[in-house]
Amino acid sequence: MALSRRLFVTAAATTAASVSTSTALAASGGRPPAPAASHFPEEHGYRIPVSPDDSQEELVRKASRVRPTARQIAWQRLERTAFLHFGVNTFTGLEWGTGDEDPDVFQPVGLDTDQWARALRDGGFKLAILTVKHHDGFVLYPSRYTNHSVAAGSWRAGRGDVLRSFADSMRRYGIKVGVYISPADENQYLHGVYANGSARSERTIPTPVAGENRADQPSFALQATDYGAHMLNQLHEVLTEYGPIDEVWFDGAQGRIPPDKVEKYDWDSWCALVRALAPDASIAVSGPDVRWVGNEGGLAREDEWSVIPVKEKDYGRTDYALAYDAPDEGSREALLAARPVADHLQWWPAECDVSIRDGWFYHPDQQPKSVKQLTDIYFRSVGRNSVLLLNIPPDTQGLLHAADVARLREFRERVDRELPEDLARGRLVRDSSTVYTVDLGAEQEVDRIRLAEDIRHGQQVEGFVVEAYSRGTWTRVAGAGTVGASRILLLPAPARARRWRLRVTQTRSAARIAEFGLYRSRV
């Protein structure tokens, strides 16, 4: 599968590391990135240092003080985001390309990105990420820095630009724009640029191109290898010529590149450039803002923490202190288990990626998942403090298949029926720091419960129960561990009551509940 390559490099660059290049950025006319985590008071840091000598009590105290950045809060509110795997693989039938494809193979003669945008809007998606460059290195816009692009083929006489069309269409329909740019590049490997052993040195970005004057564009002096500079040049093109970018998605695997030919990526410089040119963009997966949940089924853990222990590696790269697929990333026990290797606790929320079909690129013999499957994935991702990233691959015509378009609409309608009117809206009362009540005014049946913490104050809840008042007594109807930005509970049978209560039974610091929603599904 196209994304399982993340198993080989599940790392992310930190904002703190990115700041190491801010002096060079400022000196060369670019805006510096956000300040390093260490510049914040401990009470407000998105990364807080930890020590092998910290007790479990001290680790929990520090975890309670980790806070998300504004861009992370905005990202977690998206809930449903879309992926669009599109490129030469769409036409060759491969999931991982080879890097030496004939650009003429790319022929989406019916390309209609407005159709994509309408389908995503109708499916309830708020952001879409296009595979601008997959591992094969084929680029969906006319880059100055590679011949392996849409400009090298006959489609639209070499004047086509999928990224331009995509970005314009998404914004036209109110959808935020994200870009996937694979760090691995098989074409550049074949041409002796990727992993060629070049030393890191100061590079001018963008690298000047003969016959072209880009004096109006910001330039930067950044440390990079030959391939690192190639990536920086492509990032510069994408982030300066296609309007505001809201997410930059770096994958972490190698495609077909031999494992002994792995480039040591210039994460610090890449992230610094993104911060300078797209300061509101989340840097995802191999990035400091968003982490991969650890599987490609779209499923979060039963208790998913946004505050987890991390360790810093090459060029400021942030990696999981525990295994990327550990069943527990952030509980008290996990904090203690990670203590020997962790150097920070970080707000690093989970993104759950999955494809609507079996593959990530379009294959005509595959069918979309059922509405029931997609709904189950929704409750086990969005309903577990994560953001769902659902891939819908365009076909060889350059369209989303009619079956997929219908399924997206059906999926949204099903979620709307699962969570219709919030019966508790405007009725929440905080009785104490651990008890919240709702009076519905009359007895009503409830079978869906939605909770959310005010994550501006961190993630604190470690355990809770929901109770209904019936026949003079409070009766437990549901309970779980974490809440975070979103927790959805499905009751096995409707419970009927007028008064409802949420009791936080274990918490790291004062719990701040922002939502206690009660629903009666219409399924």
List the helices and strands and how they pair.
Elements: E1 11-13, H1 15-18, H2 22-27, E2 47-49, H3 56-64, H4 70-76, E3 80-84, H5 89-92, H6 113-122, E4 127-133, H7 162-172, E5 176-181, H8 186-190, E6 201-205, E7 220-224, H9 226-241, E8 247-250, H10 267-277, E9 282-285, E10 291-292, E11 307-312, E12 317-320, H11 332-337, E13 344-347, E14 350-355, H12 371-379, E15 386-391, H13 402-418, E16 428-430, E17 435-453, E18 461-470, E19 473-480, E20 487-507, E21 513-519
Parallel strand pairs: 3-4, 3-15, 4-5, 5-8, 8-9, 10-14, 14-15
Antiparallel strand pairs: 1-12, 2-13, 6-7, 11-12, 11-13, 16-17, 17-20, 17-21, 18-19, 18-20
Give a written overview of the molecule.
- By secondary structure, this protein is of the alpha/beta class.
- It contains 13 helices and 21 strands.
- It has an 8-stranded parallel beta sheet with strand order 9-8-5-4-3-15-14-10. Strands 16, 17, 18, 19, 20 and 21 form a 6-stranded antiparallel beta sheet that branches. Strands 1-12-11-13-2 form a 5-stranded antiparallel beta sheet.
- The chain is globular and about 80 Å long.
Briefly characterize the structure:
With 523 residues, this protein is an alpha/beta fold. The chain has 13 helices and 21 strands. The model is unreliable at 1-43 (pLDDT under 50).
Labels describing this entry:
alpha/beta, eight-stranded parallel β-sheet, six-stranded antiparallel β-sheet, 22% helix, 26% strand, globular, disordered N terminus
